[in-house]
Design a protein that fits this description.
It is a single chain. Helices cover 62% and strands 12% of the residues. By secondary structure, it is an alpha+beta fold. The protein has a single domain, classed as Outer membrane efflux proteins (OEP) (Up-down Bundle). The strands form three sheets. The protein has a four-stranded antiparallel sheet, with no helix packed on it. A two-stranded antiparallel ribbon has the order 2-5. One of its GO terms (molecular function) is porin activity.
């Protein structure tokens, strides 16, 4: 089919990849799902993110467990039974049935334990802070995966539309080639070339359909709903730093993996102090009140009350404490090395995504120029073929080059958006706090404040 005979609908479809609005749209904007609203759905319902939030609430209770060491313990002890006693003393029968019973209250309070409670609390708090950063990293990963799957659905949909339009064009091209063959203008070779190109185009449609189905499945996994009426995605350039050095500086300072690693160092240092505390004396006080009945003689009762102080000074217990201290110190060294490793990983990730974003920007510009040049070239080749200066194969090749250029443009536009999100993720700012995701932010501190000072209660703050 030559250029001048194409229908307006076909010409419009073939220009699908020349702009983001045309190439990466599934439906009109009136009822579209936006990238931001898709991220909001992922933020609220992604199971991986919700599981990480639950784990953060689990770690909150570690602080309440550690703080319990400051508080007293109390217990009520009750005993009851039956005792039969017998004997004879100076002609007196001593047989009697006793029903001994006692009830008592015991209260213990630790006054000093080598600062173990202090350091256990510090270690638990560091664990909470580390898990909060892990939660923030999970949030960033979920949002990035959602953005990536959103853009993949858009680009795969646009690519499939281009492939289908290409089949329509090649079908018309084959029809015209056969007509020209019937009147002797071209050879059987030209017909075979058109048939082969059409068969390949149909195979490409099948592959594009498969890729789109895969992208839709991943979208459903990440966002939680099927993709419907997706609006074009926009790059997150307003949160991308001005240059690479600034991006690295922000990332090393704010990335949650870096902060989590340093909190892990703090927790390991606190654990050393906990084990060192086992070498210190322990001082505690115990108060006890007890009421007893029939202990030795039937129908008798008595009570006792006491307050006792206890001081325990450890001397030697086989060397276990010393080994634990040495072991904990080595763990501190390991955590510090791991923190430096994480910093290097974050730096490398920032450089990687920065380079990909810059390359995607360049590819968009180059692909747009390539599409325009190939459009001009295809029009020229078709006109030359009409007057016998070009073969059918020349037309097919020019048309394939234009199709490839348009597909490359779609890919470049997709990467342009995805890698802008990748840079923001790499520096540690792809969260609802920094981005325009229309959703109420989850605050892990709210649950922490609810449970850290609870003295009793088995219900969680949400009523379970």
């Amino acid at each position: 089919m030559d250029v001048k005979r194409r229908t307006p609908a076909t010409r419009s479809a073939l220009r699908l990849a020349t702009s983001v609005a045309a190439a990466l749209t599934l439906a009109g904007p009136a009822m579209s799902e936006t990238l931001e609203s898709a991220l909001a759905k992922a933020y609220g319902g992604n199971p991986q993110l919700n599981a990480s939030r639950a784990l953060t609430r689990v770690r909150d209770e570690d602080v309440a467990i550690a703080v319990s060491g400051y508080r007293p313990t109390a217990a009520i002890n009750v005993q009851a039974g039956v005792t039969q006693q017998g004997g004879n003393l100076a002609g007196t029968n001593l047989d009697q049935l006793l029903k001994p019973a006692s009830a008592g209250l015991v209260v213990n309070q630790t006054l000093f334990n080598g600062f173990q409670t202090d350091n256990n609390t510090r270690r638990a708090e560091s664990g909470v802070y580390s898990q909060r950063e892990t939660l923030r990293f999970t949030e960033m990963s979920v949002l990035f995966s959602a953005a990536q799957s959103y853009m993949n659905v858009l680009s795969d949909t646009a690519t499939l539309e281009l492939r289908r339009n290409n089949v329509e064009v090649l079908e018309e091209q084959l029809r015209q080639t056969r007509d020209r063959f019937n009147v002797g203008e071209v050879t059987r070779t030209d017909v075979a070339q058109a048939e082969a190109r059409l068969a390949g185009a149909r195979a490409d449609v099948s592959a594009a359909e498969s890729a789109l189905r895969t992208s839709i499945g991943i979208y459903r996994q990440n966002v939680g709903v099927e993709p419907r009426q997706l609006a074009p995605g926009r790059p997150l350039d307003r949160y991308v730093p001005a240059n690479l050095d600034q991006a690295i500086s922000v990332g090393l300072r704010e990335h949650p993996q870096v902060l989590s690693a340093f909190h892990a160092v703090d927790a390991a240092e606190a654990q050393v102090k906990v084990f060192e505390g086992t070498l210190y004396p322990t001082l505690s006080v115990q108060g006890q009140v007890q009421q007893a009945y029939d202990q030795q003689v039937a129908n008798t009762s008595g009570y006792a009350a006491s307050i006792l102080g206890r001081l325990t000074i450890p001397l030697y217990q086989g060397g276990q404490e010393y080994a634990q201290i040495r072991q904990a110190k080595e763990t501190v060294g390991q955590r510090r090395i791991e923190a430096e490793q994480v910093r290097d990983q974050v730096r490398a990730q920032i450089v990687d995504f920065w380079g990909r974003l810059e390359a995607a920007k360049a590819r968009v510009i180059a692909s747009q120029a390539q599409v325009q040049a190939n459009e001009v070239a295809l029009n020229g080749v078709r006109e030359e073929a009409r007057v016998g200066q070009r073969t059918t194969l020349d037309v097919l090749n020019a048309q394939q080059e234009l199709l490839n250029a348009r597909v490359n443009l779609i890919t470049a536009q997709r990467d342009r958006v995805i890698f802008s999100y990748g840079v923001v993720q790499a520096i540690g700012r792809l969260t609802v706090r920094f981005t325009a995701v229309p959703v109420a932010a989850y605050s892990p501190k709210a649950h922490f404040d609810q449970v850290k000072d609870l003295w009793f209660g088995i219900r969680t703050p949400d009523g379970r």
